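User: Thanks for the earlier help. One more: Arogenate dehydratase. Can you show the sequence and predicted structure together?

Assistant: Of course, both are below.
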Amino acid sequence: MALKCASLWVCARNPCSNLGASDCGSRNSGAALISFKLDLEKFRKWECCRFGALTQQAITPVEDEKPHVPGVESSGAIERTRGNEPRGFHKDLNLLPKPLTANDLSSSPSDGSKVRVAYQGLPGAYSEAAALKAYPKCETVPCDQFEETFKAVELWLVDKAVLPIENSVGGSIHRNYDLLLRHRLHIVGEVQMQVNHCLLGLPGTRKEEIKSVLSHPMALAQCDMMLCDLGVLRISAHDTAGAAQMVASTGLRETGAIASAKAAEIYGLDILAENIQDDKDNITRFLILAREPIIPGTDRPYKTSIVFTLEEGPGVLFKALSVFALRSINLSKIESRPRKQHPSSVVDNSNEGSAKHFDYLFFIDFEASMAEPRAQYALGHLQQEFARFLRVLGSYPIDTVL
């Protein structure tokens, strides 16, 4: 959905003669200082720019990124055995909310008395903890797949969605970058959270008895040193809380799980070891998504996320990024992803034949609010001179509290 701000205009009263410094001209001097060799006439067209025009352009879809709902993928699981359920386990499971699936996206939303937030995973997942950090009194709604969290928001089953986007150890979560482009939700906030992994087992189990460990592949990678010391078999699961539930349901004493302390409490497991991640400063950044964008302000630090593609040519990426450097805008994140259905383009360098190169989408986070003229000028410059496609994913407050 486009940002409804048709009446919002940002105009500069004075000529912009020093765009490299602050995008504003001098009132007292007849001859302005020019810090960079820029064509003044190109920039005057941006002195009176309409913020609504940028956000309207922001929702222009890429031709090869059409929304779709994939089938629910089943994660690998070890064979369940009946009996030997830990104490209190079956009672807790019956009280837990059931995850949404692709077949459940037809019910009505709640009465709106409190915020409903969707997340991927089961109760006890780190994404649920991120949702509760952002909205302490919210009602959390678990979903089986990342795709279903997007659909839950789009179909008004929930108000917001929280999904992980990058980790300080494991890096970016590429699947969610692709989903951001495929769907038309807006980023309205972020959550940064310290992740402390625990080794969980059935009640009475000792760490030395564990022969295999289940968890999400990224959690397994983040605890590599401890797992190597134990010499255990690693088994991938769909999410950390799901791994804890699987250990509790199978009743196998030689199987452990890497998950949160909250998951141990929910599924009736013992914590065999705490803070087992290799890097103690293990931080995951989550995005908060909504149907409508928020109106950005300037009262606090803001971050803006965009995605764009570039024209072909030498040094085009360098020139495109310079529109931010000229205005002293700091870039906090840059991520490139090949375009899905057009992964390569043919470039002829006047030699015999032609070469194929990957055609990339660039995701960028920069530290400025879209309410600031310098951010508007930067995106206007980028769109006018370099970008074939540009979309603003959101402009939102920076989370500074871990």
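User: Great, one quick takeaway?

Assistant: The first helix runs from residue 40 to 44.
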